[in-house]
């Protein structure tokens, strides 16, 4: 099972609800091969301008520092490989940060086998939340009185 972070776009006036729902983004929490292999191009494709700028500055500083220290080509390659690996591992986090910075809202996490199932689960629960009162709690739910939560309904109650 995979975890999908769900992001809602900023609300625009005069937009139908169906069109708004179609713009939701489901980010799968996993290693991103495209970000690993084609880091700067992946950042451009996703319009992650600040991430790309930070990436270019980091690589320039690394190159300057490694050359200044007289580090050989094989070691520099290893450092760049590790940076690319880091970008691949943190791709979902970088994209999440970019979306939040642009005003998108984090709507939670959905656990599902694939994207289609994740979308179905999310929108089923989302529409249920908006359509009326919540369902009654199951009969085995703990009793809650005056701020006491748990199996014992009274403070200091016996077992």
Report on the architecture of this protein.
The chain has one domain. Helices cover 52% and strands 12% of the residues. It has helices at residues 17-22, 33-37, 39-45, 49-69, 73-89, 91-101, 115-130, and strands spanning 2-8, 25-28, 105-112. A three-stranded antiparallel β-sheet has the order 2-1-3, with helices on both faces. The longest helix is centred in the middle third of the chain and has 21 residues, at 49-69. The radius of gyration is 23 Å and the shape is elongated. The two termini are 38 Å apart.
Give the helices and strands, then pairings.
Layout: E1 2-8, H1 17-22, E2 25-28, H2 33-37, H3 39-45, H4 49-69, H5 73-89, H6 91-101, E3 105-112, H7 115-130
Antiparallel strand pairs: 1-2, 1-3
């Amino acid at each position: 099972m995979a975890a999908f972070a769900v992001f809602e776009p900023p609300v625009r006036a005069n937009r139908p609800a169906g069109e708004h729902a179609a713009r939701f983004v489901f980010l799968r929490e996993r290693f991103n091969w495209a970000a690993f292999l084609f880091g700067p191009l992946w950042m451009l494709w996703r319009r992650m301008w600040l991430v790309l700028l930070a990436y270019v500055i980091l690589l320039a500083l690394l190159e300057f520092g490694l050359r200044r220290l007289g580090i050989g080509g094989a070691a520099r390659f290893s450092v760049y490989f590790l940076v690319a690996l880091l970008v691949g591992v943190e791709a979902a986090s970088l994209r999440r940060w970019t979306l939040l910075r642009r005003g998108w809202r984090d709507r939670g996490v959905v656990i599902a086998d694939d994207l289609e199932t994740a979308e179905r689960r999310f929108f089923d629960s989302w529409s249920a939340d908006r359509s009326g009162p919540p369902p009654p709690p199951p009969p085995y739910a703990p009793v809650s009185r005056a701020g006491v939560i748990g199996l014992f309904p009274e403070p200091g109650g016996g077992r």
